[in-house]
């Protein structure tokens, strides 16, 4: 009887405690839950005055004044003044097709605030080679000037490149081997895209360069990190032990080290292939891989190596100037094909509409490539084995092809044999 009374009293106390939660519990359940929400993306401070413009010109190689490349855009750096600033401003304005007034006007500010790559645009010749001696340099910051680190110079193109088109000069081959490994660093994934999306986009980016050179890029997930040629990762602010500091979304979105590291600012709104908003991760990755391979910036219209981000076209391809520039470093693909032919055929799309397709096929040994003429590129994923793509024909060494196409006939003939 006594035990039953104690049990009822215990249950009553538990019920009352449930109705009147303690103060810590009340505070916990009524909190704003901001601790469960992702931290907001930081925004880059816009370039709005002369001091910020001076730092920009020094940071990206337009001024004779050396700057500490590892500091953030808002950090202190010596900046040019007087006639030296005007010269740097004119060079930047000419490269961006602006009136070379040497003054910080609205169009110049707009050009400086466009999203861009963090690699400097150029390196100027030594002061002794300048046509006119520069004006005395007055430090912008009262703090003592930091000594530039020698290893930071590896991010810069070699001296002698031109501002307007550094693709034609100033390039240098970064790798002597033809097979290069790459890896998306495990502790540096993007917070905006799935890991599978990131790896797929990077595979496509590497493929765009391998399609026009003899280079072979292979994803390596098992080898020691020190042996991987190109490592990619995302970060914010001070990231991945890198001396280069990201500035937040809106300006510098990525940078590449010639030793093989590529870093992306995770504050930027990177988007997958299916999106037409934000910043295309594919386009930025192709650009940064170009830097790792040895290509500098160029202001040639249409080039992927332009320093500023340009929204992606529906059909994104390497410009002919990019292809020629990378082939000057690594050569072009060699070897003959067994046969090549154009094939015009009709096929139905997902809506049942009949469309005429015009593609070009290349056969070599037991493999074939499909060249999409409408996209001016080979199909992603090629080459494929003949056995998997074409049924009922010899699996290798096709010598010739004939297509008979008329009002009443649509026949294809493959030939293999020895002419006698």
Automatic annotation (TrEMBL):
<feature type="binding site">
    <location>
        <position position="229"/>
    </location>
    <ligand>
        <name>Ca(2+) 2</name>
    </ligand>
</feature>
<feature type="binding site">
    <location>
        <position position="266"/>
    </location>
    <ligand>
        <name>Ca(2+) 1</name>
    </ligand>
</feature>
<feature type="binding site">
    <location>
        <position position="291"/>
    </location>
    <ligand>
        <name>Zn(2+) 2</name>
    </ligand>
</feature>
<feature type="binding site">
    <location>
        <position position="255"/>
    </location>
    <ligand>
        <name>Zn(2+) 1</name>
    </ligand>
</feature>
<feature type="binding site">
    <location>
        <position position="263"/>
    </location>
    <ligand>
        <name>Zn(2+) 1</name>
    </ligand>
</feature>
<feature type="binding site">
    <location>
        <position position="268"/>
    </location>
    <ligand>
        <name>Ca(2+) 1</name>
    </ligand>
</feature>
<feature type="binding site">
    <location>
        <position position="268"/>
    </location>
    <ligand>
        <name>Ca(2+) 3</name>
    </ligand>
</feature>
<feature type="signal peptide">
    <location>
        <begin position="1"/>
        <end position="24"/>
    </location>
</feature>
<dbReference type="Pfam" id="PF01471">
    <property type="entry name" value="PG_binding_1"/>
</dbReference>
<dbReference type="GO" id="GO:0006508">
    <property type="term" value="P:proteolysis"/>
</dbReference>
<feature type="domain" description="Peptidase metallopeptidase">
    <location>
        <begin position="171"/>
        <end position="332"/>
    </location>
</feature>
<feature type="binding site">
    <location>
        <position position="239"/>
    </location>
    <ligand>
        <name>Zn(2+) 1</name>
    </ligand>
</feature>
<keyword id="KW-0378">Hydrolase</keyword>
<feature type="binding site">
    <location>
        <position position="248"/>
    </location>
    <ligand>
        <name>Ca(2+) 3</name>
    </ligand>
</feature>
<dbReference type="GO" id="GO:0030574">
    <property type="term" value="P:collagen catabolic process"/>
</dbReference>
<feature type="binding site">
    <location>
        <position position="261"/>
    </location>
    <ligand>
        <name>Ca(2+) 2</name>
    </ligand>
</feature>
<protein>
    <submittedName>
        <fullName>Matrix metallopeptidase 21</fullName>
    </submittedName>
</protein>
<dbReference type="GO" id="GO:0030198">
    <property type="term" value="P:extracellular matrix organization"/>
</dbReference>
<dbReference type="GO" id="GO:0031012">
    <property type="term" value="C:extracellular matrix"/>
</dbReference>
<dbReference type="InterPro" id="IPR001818">
    <property type="entry name" value="Pept_M10_metallopeptidase"/>
</dbReference>
<dbReference type="InterPro" id="IPR002477">
    <property type="entry name" value="Peptidoglycan-bd-like"/>
</dbReference>
<comment type="similarity">
    <text>Belongs to the peptidase M10A family.</text>
</comment>
<feature type="active site">
    <location>
        <position position="288"/>
    </location>
</feature>
<feature type="binding site">
    <location>
        <position position="399"/>
    </location>
    <ligand>
        <name>Ca(2+) 4</name>
    </ligand>
</feature>
<dbReference type="InterPro" id="IPR021190">
    <property type="entry name" value="Pept_M10A"/>
</dbReference>
<dbReference type="GO" id="GO:0004222">
    <property type="term" value="F:metalloendopeptidase activity"/>
</dbReference>
<keyword id="KW-0479">Metal-binding</keyword>
<dbReference type="InterPro" id="IPR033739">
    <property type="entry name" value="M10A_MMP"/>
</dbReference>
<keyword id="KW-0482">Metalloprotease</keyword>
<feature type="binding site">
    <location>
        <position position="265"/>
    </location>
    <ligand>
        <name>Ca(2+) 3</name>
    </ligand>
</feature>
<feature type="region of interest" description="Disordered">
    <location>
        <begin position="123"/>
        <end position="143"/>
    </location>
</feature>
<dbReference type="GO" id="GO:0008270">
    <property type="term" value="F:zinc ion binding"/>
</dbReference>
<feature type="binding site">
    <location>
        <position position="305"/>
    </location>
    <ligand>
        <name>Zn(2+) 2</name>
    </ligand>
</feature>
<keyword id="KW-0862">Zinc</keyword>
<dbReference type="Pfam" id="PF00413">
    <property type="entry name" value="Peptidase_M10"/>
</dbReference>
<dbReference type="Pfam" id="PF00045">
    <property type="entry name" value="Hemopexin"/>
</dbReference>
<keyword id="KW-0865">Zymogen</keyword>
<feature type="binding site">
    <location>
        <position position="297"/>
    </location>
    <ligand>
        <name>Zn(2+) 2</name>
    </ligand>
</feature>
<feature type="binding site">
    <location>
        <position position="247"/>
    </location>
    <ligand>
        <name>Ca(2+) 3</name>
    </ligand>
</feature>
<dbReference type="InterPro" id="IPR024079">
    <property type="entry name" value="MetalloPept_cat_dom_sf"/>
</dbReference>
<feature type="repeat" description="Hemopexin">
    <location>
        <begin position="334"/>
        <end position="393"/>
    </location>
</feature>
<keyword id="KW-0106">Calcium</keyword>
């Amino acid at each position: 009887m006594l035990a039953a009374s104690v049990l009822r009293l215990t249950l009553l106390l538990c019920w009352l405690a449930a109705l009147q939660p303690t103060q810590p519990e009340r505070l916990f359940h009524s909190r704003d839950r901001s601790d469960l929400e992702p931290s907001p993306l930081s925004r880059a401070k816009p370039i709005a005055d002369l001091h910020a413009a001076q730092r920009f010109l020094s940071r990206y190689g337009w001024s004779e004044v050396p700057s500490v490349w590892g500091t953030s855009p808002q950090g202190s750096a010596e900046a040019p003044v007087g006639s030296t600033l005007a010269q740097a401003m004119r060079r930047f304005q000419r490269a961006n097709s602006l009136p070379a007034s040497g003054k910080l006007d609205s169009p110049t500010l707009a050009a400086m605030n466009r999203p861009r790559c963090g690699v400097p645009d150029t390196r100027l010749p030594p002061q002794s080679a300048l046509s006119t001696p520069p004006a005395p340099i007055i430090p912008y910051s009262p703090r003592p000037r930091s000594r530039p680190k020698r290893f930071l110079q590896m991010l810069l193109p070699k001296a002698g490149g031109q501002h307007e088109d550094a693709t034609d000069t100033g390039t240098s081959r970064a790798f002597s081997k033809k097979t290069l490994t790459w890896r998306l660093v495990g502790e540096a994934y993007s917070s905006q895209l799935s890991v599978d999306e990131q790896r797929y986009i990077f595979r496509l980016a590497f493929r765009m360069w391998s399609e026009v050179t003899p280079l072979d890029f292979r994803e390596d997930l098992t080898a020691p990190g020190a042996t991987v040629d190109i490592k990619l990762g995302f970060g914010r602010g001070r990231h991945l032990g890198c001396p280069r500091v990201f500035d937040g979304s809106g300006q510098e979105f990525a940078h590449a080290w010639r030793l093989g590291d590529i870093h992306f600012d995770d504050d930027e709104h990177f988007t997958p292939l299916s999106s037409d908003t934000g910043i295309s991760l594919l386009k930025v990755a192709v650009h940064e891989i170009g830097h790792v391979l040895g290509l500098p910036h160029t202001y040639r219209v249409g080039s992927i190596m332009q320093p500023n981000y340009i929204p992606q076209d529906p059909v994104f391809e390497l410009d002919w100037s990019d292809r020629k520039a990378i082939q000057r470093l690594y050569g072009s693909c060699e070897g003959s094909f067994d046969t090549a032919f154009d094939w015009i055929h009709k096929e139905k799309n997902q809506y049942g509409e009949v469309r005429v397709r015009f593609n070009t096929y290349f056969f070599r040994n037991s493999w074939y490539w499909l060249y999409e003429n409408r996209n001016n590129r080979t199909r992603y994923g090629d080459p494929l084995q003949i056995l998997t793509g074409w049924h009922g024909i010899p699996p290798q060494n096709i010598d010739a092809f004939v297509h008979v196409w008329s009002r009443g006939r649509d026949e294809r003939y493959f030939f293999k044999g020895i002419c006698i």
